[in-house]
């Protein structure tokens, strides 16, 4: 089969004679259809001729293809002026990404940043008084109120409420509550707790004062120390309150408060 030289840029390829320029056909090959031609071309070996301005591909090994076992070893070089190395609007995309990250960080910090729980002493609501005439003791049950506010965007658990009552620097009653309540986000809850108080052995004169019929109001001063422990977002905080209270130890009392 005859051959001819065809030059494309700087590479010369050896082509079958039936593929001449201008569509000329060899009379001997007129009987071949397109399918037979493609088979002949496929079976024709690849031959690379190097011109004066070109070099032989060292990795093709004369086949025109890169060996499959060298696909991960070879590096393709792209010209410096290739448009693929100059992506459009790079600064715009980078700027938008930075702004988006800042916005997301700000929202996360605003909604998830822990804020301190606010605890306000609501005072004493009721006092129930009993007298132990045998031991000359004054027994009282005092119910107090705490107003707890949650300014966070997540729930807060009130783990414990502890209270200690002192009279003349002497502890006369204590109370401890655990797992009190859960406060919903941006809401407020009211917690009531009762402390049992006994006055007598350390101050026997209090019994005489509280049972004296000639006195209409039997006020005494007590000191209440309250501690509230809360937890939220793997964080634990504690609020401590301290207040002096006047109570009437002579009779049952209910204090009306405006909520």
UniProtKB/TrEMBL annotation:
Biased composition (Basic and acidic residues): 18-36
Residue intervals of the Transmembrane protein 106 N-terminal domain: 32-91
Subcellular location, record wording: Endomembrane system
Gene3D superfamilies registered for this protein in UniProt: 2.60.40.1820
The keyword rRNA processing appears for this protein: no
Region described as Disordered: spans on this chain: 1-36
Superkingdom to which the source organism belongs: Eukaryota
InterPro entries attached to this UniProt entry: TMEM106 (IPR009790), TMEM106_C (IPR048509), TMEM106_N (IPR048511)
Broad class of the protein's primary localization: membrane
Transmembrane segments: 92-113
GO CC field: endomembrane system
Cited Pfam families: TMEM106 (PF07092), TMEM106_N (PF21002)
UniProt entry keywords in alphabetical sequence: Membrane, Transmembrane, Transmembrane helix
Residue ranges of domain Transmembrane protein 106 C-terminal in the record: 114-254
PANTHER family, alphabetized: TRANSMEMBRANE PROTEIN 106B, TRANSMEMBRANE PROTEIN 106C
Record family assignment: Belongs to the TMEM106 family.
Entry protein name: Transmembrane protein 106C
Organism, scientific name: Channa argus
């Amino acid at each position: 089969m005859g051959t001819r030289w065809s030059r494309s840029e700087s590479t010369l390829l050896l082509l079958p004679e039936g593929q001449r320029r201008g569509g000329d056909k060899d009379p001997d090959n007129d009987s071949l259809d397109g399918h037979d031609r493609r088979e002949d071309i496929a079976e024709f070996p690849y031959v690379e001729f190097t011109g004066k301005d070109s070099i032989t591909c060292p990795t093709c090994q004369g086949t025109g293809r890169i060996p499959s076992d060298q696909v991960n070893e070879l590096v393709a070089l792209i010209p410096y002026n290739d448009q693929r190395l100059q992506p459009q609007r790079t600064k715009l995309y980078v700027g938008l990404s930075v702004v988006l990250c800042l916005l997301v960080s700000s929202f996360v910090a605003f909604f998830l940043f822990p804020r301190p729980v606010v605890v306000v002493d609501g005072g004493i609501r009721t006092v129930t008084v009993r007298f132990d005439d045998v031991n000359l003791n004054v027994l009282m049950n005092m119910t107090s109120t705490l107003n707890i506010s949650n300014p966070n965007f997540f729930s807060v658990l009130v783990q414990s409420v502890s209270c200690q009552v002192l009279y003349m620097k002497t502890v006369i009653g204590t109370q401890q509550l655990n797992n009190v309540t859960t406060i919903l986000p941006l809401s407020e809850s009211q917690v009531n707790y009762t402390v049992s108080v006994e006055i007598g052995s350390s101050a026997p004169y209090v019994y005489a004062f509280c049972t004296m019929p000639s006195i209409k109001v039997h006020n005494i001063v007590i000191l209440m120390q309250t501690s509230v422990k809360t937890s939220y977002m793997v964080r634990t905080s504690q609020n401590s309150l301290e207040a002096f209270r006047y109570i009437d130890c002579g009779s049952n009392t209910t204090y009306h408060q405006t909520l």
